[in-house]
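Subject: complex prediction, re-run

Hi both,

The earlier run crashed halfway through, so I resubmitted it with identical inputs.
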Amino acid sequence: MKIRQLSLFLENRPGQLRVPCKVLGDAGIDILTMSLADTQQFGILRLIVKDWQRAKQVLEAAGQVVNVTDLLALDVPDHAGGLASVLEVFERTGLGVEYMYAFGLRQRGKSATLLFRLEDPEGAQVKLASAGVALVSAEELFRRAAA
Amino acid sequence: MTHGWNDATSAFHPASAPDYLPRPQLEALQLGRLQAVVRRAYERVPLFRERMERLDLGPEAVRALPDLGQLPFTVKADLRDTYPFGLFASPMEEVVRLHASSGTTGKPIVVAYTAADLQVWTGVMVRSFAACGLHQGDVVQNAYGYGLFTGGLGAHYGAEALGATVIPISGGNTERQLMVLADFGVTAIACTPSYMVHLIERAKEAGVGFGKLKVGIFGAEPWSEEMRQHIQAEAGIRAHDIYGLSEIIGPGVGIECVHRDGLHLFEDHFYPEIIDPASGAVLPDGSEGELVLTTLSKQAMPMIRYRTRDITALHPEPCSCGRTIRRIRRIGRRSDDMFIIRGVNVFPSQVETALLKVEGTLPHYQIVLTRQKGLDEMEVQVEVTAEFFSDRIRGLEALQAELADAIEHTIGLRVKVHLVQPKTIARSEGKAKRVLDQRKI
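This time it finished cleanly. Structure:
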């Protein structure tokens, strides 16, 4: 149920973000969603793409440092308080969130898909399943993205 | 192969005989040569004569080896001031070769060799390779730059005279270096240690190995013990440090034998002293100080008490290899690539040691010195590697802090550590540029 994320190290100076985007574009790889964390000196670009192995290969060939991390994807009710209710489950089951960001797709009125980097993705899967929180598989995500 | 005096079955190379001379015999040889070279310098080079006369000294002042300590020093600036040929002791028709330093600041320095000087040079290079365990049948890839730099031709003629097969590939063109290394059955490589680290990195990327390579002869820049361990482990070879400088002869002034515990100096041609760099006083064996060398047999350009700026110590204890010529501790630093920041003396090798402690292998790094509003700042730029890259900001910040802590622990100063993308620090095909001093003083 885990989603593979690619993280890239970027120096915080103009033009640095364009390079990996151009490399992926030239390889015909579509970025499904992304998040950029930044500090004064450097940034970390986090990407979700369908073919992560090939993306990693072309990025590394272009001289980028790439790291692969497992995320969990959750459908969160698309109404006020929806995310709070999910986070309540996290709190209750003792799950720590490292960071999170939204998937660009949204089933309007029904749910929004969020990606979570959790301290212990393996344990989190079990805890969330027993708490009745549904995880979204990679296949399902890519199916929605293609639709 | 028939049994010979210079193949894998022979224990000693005949050219190495002077390495094993009994001390009294060696010292008698040194004294005879020293007296002759001081006389030659006095009679033929105005600078040496004037300086000795000012001290009321003549060549006859050297009656025993310690008398050398009374003679004036020669420094690199003397070679620049007398550019190009002012220190030659032979007429140009006897000079058969010129070399010159790269001359990054102003005029280069020029050095000269007579035919006999070249024989001496080749001789000490043969002894250097022999001390590394090389012999006829070895294939030497000579990746030192050919040209005005002494490294290329010095290693070339030495390896040829040893009877090895020489591949004069010169520096640069890393892909070709790796291809030749694998395809030509290369058993030994000669290059700068930083270029070897570069070759290892590129070989890893290309997924190629080092074939039959067993020995590396690395010199022309200071390197650390940690760097040796890295090279030996990654390339599966024995890494030897070779020492030399153009002003004295080029490579081949000293070499590590197979025990790699200090560099044997070819004392029958280059007489060593260790001095206090501040006072100029000669220090006893074992003390750390600046290495001063006197050429005992050079004709075209004798050097009397040349200050090398290299910091080391002389070890008189016999080496387990049996050589009687003394060893110097490997040179980790030069007194001139030392820089002073906020009153603290820093050597790049100290920063290197700190980085290695944190990451385990040597990352590419550069030290950048700047002056902002009158205050000196030191920044260490370190390339991020896949092993040390975290997808979490705090992971990277922790790495930064850990590197800064390790550096502070070694040099006693808090410096800025700047993580940069791979391949953004210029790679050296020759000497690594470790310090970028942008201070306007």
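The mean pLDDT of chain A is 89.

- K.
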